[in-house]
Amino acid sequence: MTATLPARPTEHVAPPAAPAPKRKPRHTPRVRVQRTILTVTVVAIVLVQVYPLVWLLLTSFRTAADFAGGNPFALPSEWTLDNYARAFSTGNLGLNIVNSLIVTLGSSVLIVIAGMMAAYALQVLGFRFSGLVRGLFLLGIIVPVQIALVPLFIDYSQVGLLDTHLSMIIPLAAFALPMAVYLFSSFYEYIPREMYEAASLDGAGPYRIFGQITFPLSVNTIITVVLVNSIFIWNDFIFANTFVLSDGLKTIPLGLQNYIGAMGNTDWTATFAAVCVTVTPLLLVFLVLNKAMISGLESGATKG
Questions:
Q1: Which of 77, 134, 138, 192 has the most neighbouring CB atoms within 10 Å?
Q2: Do 55 and 199 belong together in one domain?
Q3: Contacts of 157 by beta carbon, 8 Å cutoff, 6+ apart
Q4: What is the tally of structural domains in the chain?
Q5: How confident is residue 166, by pLDDT bands cut at 50, 70 and 90?
Q6: How many helices (H) and strands (E) does the chain have?
Q7: Do residues 225 and 92 share a domain?
C-alpha cells in the first residue's frame, strides 16, 4: 500500500494594506497670522520698489505742460514721445551711454580678472602669510572712496591719465576688488580639494587647473560679481565728476546735468525720458541673469 500524504492547508495571502491617506498639515491661527504678515510685508516692499519705476516710465510720456500744471502723480492726460526726442537732442545721451558702457565693461573685466587671480592664489595655491594678505584685501571694503580723490587727481595729472576712460576704470575696479576677492575666495573654498589633487596627479599645472577646473565652475560667481559692481559703476558720479573735464567723456550721471538750463530751470520730462533709456539696459540684464546671480551668492556664502 502506498501511504498518502495529507494535503497542505491552503495559505491565504493577505492583500497589501492600502496606504494611509496623507494628512494635510493643520495650520494653526498663529501660523496663518505669520503668513499673512509675511505676505503683506513682501507685497509692500515690492510696491515700494516698483512704484517709482512705473511712475518714472509714465511721467516720461507726459507733456511738459501737463506735468507742470497738473498733478505730478496722476496718469498722463496726453501721451507724447517728444520727451525722448528732446532727451537725445538736448544732451549727448548717445555719447554718454557709450562712455558708460566703456567704463562699465572695462572695470568689470579688470575686476573679474584681478579678483579671480588673487582669490586663486590666496585660496587654492596658498602661500605663507596668505591669511594676512586676505585680511588686507577685506580691509579695503571699509576704505571710503573720498580719501583717494585728491591723490589720484594729482597722480593722473602728472602721468597724463586725467580726462581719460582709464582715470575712471582704474579706481572703480580697485575699490570693487576687495568684495570680488571675498566672493571668489568663498566659492573656491567650496570646491573640493580632491578635484585639484586628482588634476595634479594627472600632471596638470596650476595654470591648466585654473583654466579647466576653476574658471568653468566660477561662471555663476563671475555673473554675480559683474552684476553687483556694474550697478554701482554705471551710476558712478564721484569719480567721473572729479577726473572727467571734457564733454566728450561724460558718462550718464554727468550727462544728466545737461538738462538743467539757465537759472536752474530743468526739463523734467526729458530728464525722466533719459533716465528711462539709461535704466532699461540694467533692468533687462538683471532680469535675465538674476537666477545665476542668486546661485553665485549662495555658492559663495556656504561651504559644503
A1: 134
A2: no
A3: none
A4: 2
A5: very high
A6: 14, 0
A7: yes
Altogether, the residues listed in the chain come to a count of 304
Nearest partner of 289 among 223, 228, 217, judged by Cα = 223
DSSP β-bridge partners for residue 101: none
Average model confidence (pLDDT) for the chain?
81
User: Rounded to an integer, what distance in angstroms lies between the CA atom of residue 287 and that of residue 104?
Assistant: 18
- Specify the CATH number for the domain of residue 221: 1.10.3720.10
Q: How confident is the model at residue 301 (pLDDT cuts 50, 70, 90)?
A: very low
- CB neighbour burial string for 247-279, b if at least 16 within 10 angstroms, e if fewer: eebbbbbbbbebbeeeeeeebbbbbbbbbbbbb
Q: What mean pLDDT do residues 120-142 have?
A: 82
Residue-by-residue DSSP string for 202-258: TT--HHHHIIIIIHHHTHHHHHHHHHHHHHHHHT--HHHHHH--SGGG--HHHHGGG
Same domain, 170 and 221: yes
Q: Where does the pLDDT of residue 5 fall: very low under 50, low under 70, confident under 90, or very high at 90 and above?
A: very low
Extract the C-alpha cell encoding 262.
539757465
Task: Provide mean pLDDT across the span 2-9.
Answer: 50
Q: At residue 17, does pLDDT exceed 60?
A: no
pTM: 0.76
The Cα 234–Cα 168 span in angstroms is: 11
Report d(CA 290, CA 149) in Å as an integer.
Answer: 33
Structural domain that includes position 249:
86-301
